[in-house]
Amino acid sequence: MKKKKYLYIAITISIILTGGFISYKKYTNYLDSGLYGKPLKQINAYDILPYDKKITPKVAVIDTGVKLDNTFLEKSNIKQEFTDQISQSSQKGHGTMVTGILTSNGNGHSNPGGLIPKSNILSIQTGTDLGMTSKQLIQAINIAIDNNVKIINISLGTTKDTPELQTIIKKALEKGITIVASAGNDSNSINYYPAAYDGVISVGSINDKKEISNSLNLSNINIFAPGEKLLTTTANDKEQDYFTGNSAATPVITSIVAIMINENPNLTNSDIKSILISSADTKIYKNNEIKIVNLKNALKKASVENKKD
Questions:
Q1: What positions does the domain Peptidase S8/S53 occupy (predicted)?
Q2: CATH number of 118's domain
Q3: How many domains does the chain have?
Q4: Of the candidates 142, 153, 145, the residue with the CA atom closest to the CA atom of residue 99
Q5: 13, part of any domain
Q6: Contact yes or no for 67/96 (Cβ under 8 A)
Q7: What does the DSSP 8-state code read for residue 200?
Q8: Is the dihedral of CA 300, 251, 229, 210 positive or negative?
Q9: CA-to-CA distance for 80 and 182, rounded, in angstroms?
Q10: What gap in Å lies between CA 61 and CA 156, rounded to an integer?
């Protein structure tokens, strides 16, 4: 019997209080943590995020699905599709946390909320919270292509580089889709796919001190963003909680990509990747040069790139 290759979700969920998730009603100090306050200032985004304009480009989130009845997602525009019957049994924990960073109720300052709350999200539920097969990921990318999305958020990865996965990633890129994918959390020498593929924007996580959150293969990470203790939605319909890891940082970059395309629809996926890197802040970490996203700089460059007269 042929052995299946599984993708494992690249996350760490920080449980702040003993006994489980923190209810938003009990949570009072979000202004000093997560995406609120200092982290937004660190990426030059405090006056821009959350973005209050309608987002035109459709964003696909390939993950474990979204708990659509979460109170904090009731105003969000989310459509959900499934790759197979097994995927419909997912607990939707990881996918709900990823999606909540993109779009959820609140203005992000006086109330916690998503970074692009007026966005159009296609949640493609595949696998379960334990992982998924390469075949399921490929099916999900095909669904995204068929639905004419402009951006795909993939907050997961596999160490297995397969011709089939390469082919579908290449197809999506050739269709003009921007793919944002998380690097793995657990090794400084292993490549994670699709993040390691050319053309994909690979994302790593930093904390509120601009320190890298975990050991990584830095040679394959294009851009870093806040990804430690971000307050977001959970699979419990009335709760939010902290979310940590490269999976959490990835939708931060996806939000920025969506804003860039919204401001300048003429940008290509190669333009977007180049602008994110060239406009980023540079930091030396263990003799490696890393790039930390700078939203204002990125938008300034994006506004003039490929503009038609």
A1: 57-283
A2: 3.40.50.200
A3: 1
A4: 153
A5: no
A6: yes
A7: S
A8: negative
A9: 21
A10: 11
SS3 86: helix
Does residue 98 lie in a domain region? yes
Mean pLDDT, contiguous 10-residue spans, the chain (309 residues): 48 26 41 67 90 96 92 91 74 90 75 86 88 90 98 93 96 99 76 94 91 76 92 81 89 98 98 98 89 98 75
Alpha helices in 104-263 (DSSP H): 134-146, 163-174, 246-263
- Is 155 assigned a catalytic role? no
Residues 116-132 as b/e (b if ≥16 CB within 10 A, e otherwise) read bbbbbbbbbbbbbbebb
| β partners of residue 61 | 123, 153
Question: Does 24 fall in a domain?
Answer: no
Q: Indicate whether this model's pTM tops 0.85.
A: yes
Q: 171 is written with which tokens?
A: 């197809």
Catalytic residue among 63, 76, 213, 241: 63
Helix 295-304 with 269-278: angle, nearest 10 deg: 140
- Tell me, yes or no, if 63 is annotated catalytic: yes
Given 94, 119, 241, 271, the catalytic residue: 94
- Report the chain's C-alpha Rg in angstroms: 18
Asked whether residue 25 is assigned to any structural domain, the reply reads no
CB 102 within 8 A of CB 59: yes
Query: In terms of residue numbers, what domain contains 297?
Result: 33-306
Residue located via tokens 């506004």: 303
Asked if 257 and 203 count as a contact pair (C-beta separation under 8 A), the reply is no
247 catalytic per annotation: yes
